[in-house]
Each structure stands twice: as C-alpha cells, then as structure tokens.
Amino acid sequence: MELLLPGLGLLVWTLLAFLIVFFLLKSFAWKPILSSLKERETGIADAIASADKVKAEMAALKNENEAMMAKAREERAVMIKEAKETADKMVSEAKDKAKSEYDRIVAEAQSAIMQQKNAALTDVKNQVGALVIEVAEKVLSRELSNKGDQENYIKQLAEGVKLN
Amino acid sequence: MGMASKSIKTLLVAVFSIFLLLFSAKSFASDAPAGGAEKHEAGSFDPAKLIMEHIMDAHEFHFATIGEKHISIPLPVILYSPERGLTMFNYSKFNHGHDVYQGYKSEEGHIIAVNEAGEHDTTVTVYDMSLTRNVVQMFIALTLLCVLMIGVANKYKKNGAKVAPSGFQNAVEPVITFVRDEVGKPNLGHAYEKFMPYLLTVFFFILINNLMGLIPGSANVTGNIAFTIVLGVISFFVILFSTNRHFWAHIFNPPVPGFVKPILVPVEFLGIFTKPFALIVRLFANMVAGHIVITCFVMLIFIFGAMSKVAGWGFAPVSMAFTIFIYFIEILVAFIQAFIFTNLTAVFIGQSMEGAHHDEAHH
Fold first, then answer.
1. Do the beta carbons of residue A22 and residue A15 sit within 8 Å?
2. Predicted ipTM of the assembly
3. A20: nearest CA partner in chain B
C-alpha cells in the first residue's frame, strides 16, 4: 500500500512550504486584510450608530420645535388677549380721565364765571352806590332851580353813567 | 511500462479538457494497432496501475507518450545519503528509468542506490528529498497564493478601509470573512483573532492545492498522505499548544463515577491523537477518491475500447458526461474539504480551550 506511505521529501518540503507561507501571509496578507476589514466594519457600525443618533436627535429636535411652536402659539394668543385687554383698559381709562377732566374744567369754568359774575355785581353795586352819591352830590350842589333843567340834568347825568 | 499504456495514461489526463479530448480520441484511434505492442510489453491494459500512477507522486510531469517520444517535464532529483553525501541532478539523466546515474537508479519511480554491478545496494541509505511533481506543483500553487493574497493585502493598504473592494479583492474578501465569521468566531469565541492567520493559511493552503490538483495533467497534491500528515501534525501541535488545565483535567479526571475512569481515561487520551488523525485521513481519502473516480470514468472508455472499438467510442459520451459531473462535484469538494479541515481544526482548538472560555466568561 504505497499510497499510504508518506514520502520523506514531500513531508519536509510541505512542512517548510507551510511554515514559510504561514509567516509570509501572516505578516503581509492576513494582518493588513483583517485589520482593514475590522476597521471597515467598525467604521460602518459607527456610521450606522451615529446615523441613528442623528436621527434620534433630529426627532427630538423636531419634537422640541413642535413643542416650542405650540408654546409660541399659545403665548401669542395670550399676548394678543393681554394687549387687547390693555388697549381696552387704556381706552376706558382715557375716556374716564377725559370725562373727569372735562367735568373738572367745566366746574372750574363755572366757578370762575360765578366768581367774576359776583365780582362784577359787587363792582356794579359799588359803582352804582358811588354814582348815586355823586349824582346826589351834584344835584344837591346845583340847587334845583328849574324843574325842567333839573330833569334834563338828571337825564344827562344818567346818560353819563356807563355801566361797565 | 509499455508505451501504449503510457499513451493511454496520456489520454486519461488529456481527456479532462474538451479540446484535448478530441485530440486524444484521434490519437487513440491511430494508436489502436499499438494494442499488440501493449500486450507484448506490459502484458495487458491495467487500469489500476494507471490510476495509481495518476494519483501518486512522481519525479516528472508526464503528459504524453507518442510512439517512443515522451512528452514530460523531468524534475530535479535531490538525494542525500550519509554514505555518499548530497547529490543533485535532473531526473532526465535516468532516461526514463533505463539508465544508472551517479550510482542511483530509478525503479518504478523510486530512486535506489546501486552498486557497480547495477544491483540494489542495500548498505546505502538514501533520503529522497527531490522536488517531485507534488513539491513543484505545491510551490507553484503557494507562490500564486502568496502573490494573490499579498496583492490583495496591498490593495487594502493602498485604498484604506473606507474604499469598497474591487477586482480580485471582491472574490477573496467574502471567503476571508466566511472563515472568520463561520469558522473562527463560532468555535473560538473572542480568542479567534489569535488563530485567524493560522486558520486562513490552512484554508487557502488546502484550497489552492485542491484546485490546482484539478487541472488536467497536474499532480494530486492534497490527495497525498505526506501533505495531509504535515497539515494534520501542525494542527495537532496548534491544538496541543492552545490546551489549558481544564482540558487536561477533563481527560485525566473525567467527571464520571470512579469505576468508569479506567475505561474513559484511555479513550479520552486517545482522542487527542485521533482528532488530527481524522483530519489527515479525511482530506487524503476525499481528494484521492475524487481523483480515482474521475480517472475511473475516463478509464471506462478504454476498458470498453479494449473489448471493442465501437463499444469504446459508444461509451465515450456517457463516460464524459459522468466525468464532467464528477468534475463539478470535485470543484465543490475542493472548497468543502478546505472548509472542513479548517473548521474541524477550529472546533478542536475551541474544545482544547473550552474551560478558559467559561473562566473568562465569569470575569
């Protein structure tokens, strides 16, 4: 059974060849290939992981945006409402103020009028009094000789009185 | 060795390719009258001998014998004998086994020392370290392997990891990742990286030699017991060096009742050797069987042809169909056997450091 008897030469050469090929391929082929494959696989895994992360971040951002938008809308509504209220309030306040001012001005005007009227009346009274006295003086001093003249004189005097 | 039988052997080898089939069929037809010479010289057509010649190692690549002319590539003979020292010469010096050269003679392909009278000198020990066709073919295959793989590796280095593989890189990468993901990782766990260079080398070493052995006219390297013994013994040492105390404890103190131990311990101990032995025999037997089956189918043509020329021609298409079928299977087997050898080596390495796995898992 020669088939089962190993040839010494082939044994030695195979061993030698295997060892040489092993060390040659180990350092020049398998190491760079395996490290490249590993690098690529980790690269892909990292890329997928970061893509997922970015996706999650995007989703979070979108949710956040939506929440912010809703909040902004709510705030806007509130602000509009408030502004309206403020405006109404301002308008009514202004109205009230204007009315009170008007009332005050009217009251002041009336009191001023009254005051001046009173002053005028007093003045009139005083002047009338003085006039009467003056007229009476003049009448008394002229000696009433003529009745007709007298009356004309009085008329004249009376015309000379200016009620100012 | 009859010339006609050599030409028939030629046909066996040549017939592996369609082109050569046509050529050889013609030459067979023209050689038909030589059948008489065959009977005269070699007795009769001997398929078993031809098959053995095909699957065994030889000192030359023999392609054809046309008439008296041998078409072959003789290979260097390297002999060492403690008595005579180192001798190197070309096998052609033996003139196909007819001549004696420098005190050596080739007898049926075996080189023996002869004395002055030309008789076998048993006092001289000869170590035949020749570059036989198996050795030469293995060297060619491995040179090719190294060139291809280092070329691919350089491409990775040049392009970096981020560039998609291209060309031959594409063909090699899935095989490498297959060995890593289907052989290394499942069997060796997280220790796989340490063993990847060895596993990949074994896989491609076997694969390229299996495939090269399928080329018509080439030698049957992986179907040689010496080749598989070397790989098996290397596996044996790799397995042995990766063992831990749990492995040995399991062998010498298996967890069985005391009275079973005397039976189980020898069995377990023997297991250390049967594992690589199984690897050696499996690869050898599978590859040899494939080559034998293919040569047998081709041989059938000539067995029928020896009975009648018509039967030979008639059977040729059937035989060729079977040969082609088996050939495709052999291509598959080339991959499968490379995978099985590598995978089982990984399984055995995994078993030998199994305890370590459990230990590290607890860390």
1. no
2. 0.81
3. B142
